[in-house]
């Protein structure tokens, strides 16, 4: 094999290594939701990219096989090529044949390894990570073609790997089945914030969502001593005057004593005419315990279309109230209106 031909083969193998490495990192890094969106918009090559992302494990196996084949080829062709090129250089120094052979062999190995690592792997990897979407779209069709050409071999390799894993009592873990834990998601979000992709306000709201499932009524409720209540025996005008001095739209109504809440009144209902007694305006109120999750309470409020609930402890003693606004404030932050002080 001539030196020029072997050098061309080496360059081609190096380029193919870069292709497989870039494709492998790009299809892992790219967001599948973004590829699906582009496919729905009939973007160029997006359908092919979607196929690769949807069958990620198969195409990762194709990339790994391609990297292995080209790496072996670089090892065989590269050392021969550079050894042949360097031999005249070392011969000009008048060294012995043994010394020339050792020096050319070592130099050829170092040069081939350097080019393989830097040009064939590190540079394509960095490009793929930074331009994952573009690389995936550009290389989707070539990797699909390579997969089809070597499908029988890839199928045999995957099958052999599964057999070995089954012999040691393990199941193959598909890359596409790996999910991020909550802690990992928090770290990713924090890194995105540090990189300027997520604002401080967005970061605060996202972090509050993570603790949403962990919150109970006790974490959000208004304590018993801060509740503004209306006596059921009050006249309509007395109730109106009471509401005028308050800052709320819904008021619990008690009978006989404040521990006996029979419902609630909406402030606007007090403006109705021909009301003989305010008991006519009372709406049913939701009953919850302080250990209930706010998620379940919010669902109850949505279903019953009631935005207020009274809270009892484990001894069935009234300990406070909770409103939909109290729950939402734990997610989006403090919600103030013109009456808040």
Could you please describe the fold and organization of this structure?
- Helix content is 61%, strand content 10%.
- Helix 3 crosses helix 6 (132-149).
- With 341 residues, the chain is α/β, with parallel strands linked by helices.
- The protein folds into 2 domains: 3-177, no CATH class; 214-332, Roll (CBS-domain), CATH 3.10.580.
- The mean pLDDT is 84.
- It is rod-shaped.
- The strands form 2 sheets. A 4-stranded mixed beta sheet has the order 1-7-6-5. The protein has a 3-stranded mixed beta sheet with strand order 2-3-4.
- It contains 13 helices and 7 strands.
- Residues 281-338 form the CBS domain.
- This is HlyC/CorC family transporter.
- The chain crosses the membrane at residues 6-28, 59-78, 98-119, 149-170.
